[in-house]
Amino acid sequence: MTALLDTACGYAACTTLNYLALTPTIDLRIDYMRPAEPGKAIYAEGEVYRTASNVIFTRGIAYQEDKSKPVAHAVANFAVMGSETFEDFRQYITEAYQQLGLSL
Q1: 3-state secondary structure of 7
Q2: Model pTM score
Q3: CA–CA separation, 74 vs 60, rounded Å?
């Protein structure tokens, strides 16, 4: 559950950037609301509610069949790193896409 919500919120945080990069987790809090039912899929959503110069603030929810009955809530903060930090990463991803005949 922790990894699922961290990932959902982290991807939401990445959408606020104007460049391809990663946003490392600074802080993550999970509130477990009820046990998940075995054998049923768990869905997660993350959203950004504030962006500052160095931190992106998110919240998320994990649920099964009914979004109004969450399994867990999350609040997470992510670091904004300079675009130059991930230059090698961006180059690698761009080249991989080109080899597949795709574009970003």
Answers
A1: helix
A2: 0.81
A3: 5
